[in-house]
Amino acid sequence: xxxxxxxxxxxxxxxxxxxxxxxxxxxxxxxxxxxxxxxxxxxxxxxxxxxxxxxxxxxxxxxxxxxxxxxxxxxxxxxxxxxxxxxxxxxxxxxxxxxxxxxxxxxxxxxxxxxxxxxxxxxxxxxxxxxxxxxxxxxxxxxxxxxxxxxxxxxxxxxxxxxxxxxxxxxxxxxxxxxxxxxxxxxxxxxxxxxxxxxxxxxxxxxxxx
Length: 210
Fold this sequence. Notes:
The protein has helices at 24-30, 32-42, 81-94, 108-119, 123-134, 144-153, 165-175, 193-196, and strands at residues 2-5, 18-21, 53-54, 67-73, 95-106, 178-183, 203-209.
């Protein structure tokens, strides 16, 4: 088995993976009547590939030593820190010996560097861009429609912690992972990475094996 966790609504391009997401928008898309009202109220299409499975990522029932590859892009920062640690541990247990895991995550070191570069010339813009990058909460008070939207879809868009490579390396080592390395975009020993990975701007990549 191969997993793509928190895959989002993009198309399933690599059929050898199981695509999993916990977005309520995916749940709405799978129920025709709810999807109909969604489009009427929010005036946008709710398009998810039908092969994406709606599951609670924190409660996956995975057999030990049953997974060959795990790929996850921009997922961990949406969980609470202790939930992220638990997920990494559970995935380690589920991986086969020699199995590989890869995380793509927001590059907060790059955000900080950009903030420092721009702060002297335009501190207000630098601050707003930095807050937007952190996604700890909305910069502006949400409208009624936005509050309804958040109630319907949940708050999965919020970043609950801010990992960087040093932190991820430490967490992976603690769990027991080996051969931990920082990678560049689509540079990987993970099968099918060119069909899984499509987000490279302000992102860092870390890969490890069991």
